[in-house]
Write a structure and sequence with these properties.
Layout (H helix, E strand, L loop, with lengths): L3 E7 L8 H11 L3 E7 L1 H4 L3 H11 L2 E4 L4 H5 L7 H6 L4 E5 L2 E5 L1 H14 L6 E5 L3 H12 L4 E5 L3 H14 L4 E5 L11 E4 L23 E4 L8 H8 L3 E3 L1 H17 L5 H10 L5
Parallel strand pairs: 1-2, 1-3, 6-7, 6-9, 7-8, 9-10, 10-11
Antiparallel strand pairs: 3-4, 4-5
């Protein structure tokens, strides 16, 4: 009998998410029947807590995306101390002992960075947005040996909280905070967007086109669309581009491994994803 695996994604503004396709194709590769549902609390007439409880009763696991990753972290056990330090989860397994939380955004970001820049260190990096995915990116930058991390968030207290977590993890790391991107753009080697700005249905850009300064590389966590206004502006100025699609793909592969316990052929999955209509 074919193995069945029921999965879901909890988040807002996820109509264009490619996660269902990625997980269903990954399942097909190993001969499993995988279903993957979009779970939008507002559309279900539920709040996040009720949506999470519903998922626990009906799914093997779920991914969690904006704006619920930090809330999800408060509802799970986190086997990895690093994930507990990040304070956000994007992957949840519903076990008999209770929900277990993981963060594959962290590993997905590192894979995306290395895919484009290899072993080159990030340097001084401006990170815009310190929510769930921003926290994962920040710890990824720490692991990649960034020289300095500049955190920008309109909620300065949120940025300071992340800064303290980073300093605790690596006391010698220099971390600065601001509520304005313009304070740090002029002297940053890299700029990373950890906000939903630029996403289909939201629009905008985290950094004005004329404020990219002397950056060498940029990363955008948004992948719908793949070519965001932020990345288009950066490419026009000759900067090295790391697409959010690479993070999406990497985190998805790692999440599927948690869900299924199986390894898949990543190159084969990438080709299958490319061969499908990404906007479907």
């Amino acid at each position: 009998m074919m193995q069945r695996l029921r999965l879901g994604l909890i988040g807002d503004n996820i109509a264009k998410s490619q996660s269902p396709r990625l997980h269903e194709l990954a399942g097909r590769q190993i001969g499993w029947n995988v279903t993957y549902d979009r779970l939008v609390p507002k559309e279900l007439g539920l709040d996040f807590d009720a949506t999470f409880a519903h998922a626990a009763g009906h799914y093997r696991g779920v991914n969690v995306t904006y704006p619920y990753k930090e809330r999800a972290a408060k509802k799970v056990s986190m086997p990895d101390p690093l994930v507990a330090a990040i304070g956000a989860v994007n992957t949840v397994l519903f076990e008999p002992s209770g929900p277990q939380g993981y963060n594959t955004d962290y590993t997905g970001f590192m894979a995306a960075y290395r895919c484009i820049r290899g072993e080159v260190k990030p340097g001084r990096v401006l990170l815009v947005g310190t929510g769930g995915v921003g926290r994962a990116i920040a710890f990824g930058l720490l692991a990649l040996n960034a020289e300095e991390i500049r955190l920008v968030d309109t909620d300065l207290g949120k940025a300071e909280t992340l800064a303290e977590a980073l300093r605790l993890a690596r006391p010698e790391l220099r971390v600065r905070c601001s509520a304005s991107v313009l304070e740090f753009t002029g002297e940053s080697d890299g700029i990373a967007n950890g906000t939903p700005l630029g996403m289909v249905g939201i629009g905008g850009t985290p950094v004005p086109k004329d404020a990219l300064g002397h950056a060498k590389w940029v990363f955008d966590a948004v992948y719908t669309p793949v070519e965001t206004p932020f990345l288009i502006d950066a490419a026009a100025q000759g900067l090295e581009i790391i697409s959010g699609y690479e993070l999406f793909f990497g985190q998805g592969v790692d999440a599927f491994r948690h869900f299924s316990g199986m390894y898949i052929d990543e190159a084969k999955l990438r080709l299958a994803m490319t061969g499908e209509d990404k906007e479907a």
